[in-house]
Write a structure and sequence with these properties.
With 103 residues, this protein is of the alpha+beta class. Helices cover 33% and strands 26% of the residues. It has a four-stranded antiparallel β-sheet. Strand 2 and strand 3 form a beta hairpin. The chain starts with 10 loop residues before the first strand and ends with a strand.
Length: 103
């Protein structure tokens, strides 16, 4: 009997926010708290945040997880729902999760 294993594909998440420059300091604190709680989740690999160089009110959070399942499960714990999900609900409404195409 041969067992086929599905190749595990890393997932990166790109979440964009539109935040006025005057609100960015407070938003940054909330963003850090969200990243801190997500970083504790199984399958978390890395996170980055940034501001668009051409549009300073456009901020981005990128997250990397071992696979899509670990990303989805990372959003379920109570502390994530309390800290990260309210912030993530303020994101620009667009698809966020991408499969890594390059090895």
């Amino acid at each position: 009997m041969t067992i086929a294993y599905r190749k595990v594909i890393r997932v990166f998440v790109v979440i964009r926010f539109r935040v006025g420059e005057a609100q960015q300091a407070a938003f940054g604190e909330r963003l850090q708290a969200a990243v801190d709680v997500l970083a504790l989740q199984k399958g978390f690999v890395a996170a980055r945040t940034g501001r668009n160089v051409d549009d300073p009110e456009l901020l981005a959070l990128t997250l990397e997880f071992e696979n899509v399942g670990s990303y989805r499960r990372a959003l379920s714990p109570y502390d994530v729902k309390l800290t990260a999900v309210p912030l993530l609900s303020e994101a620009i409404d667009e698809p966020t999760a991408y499969e890594d195409l390059l090895p």
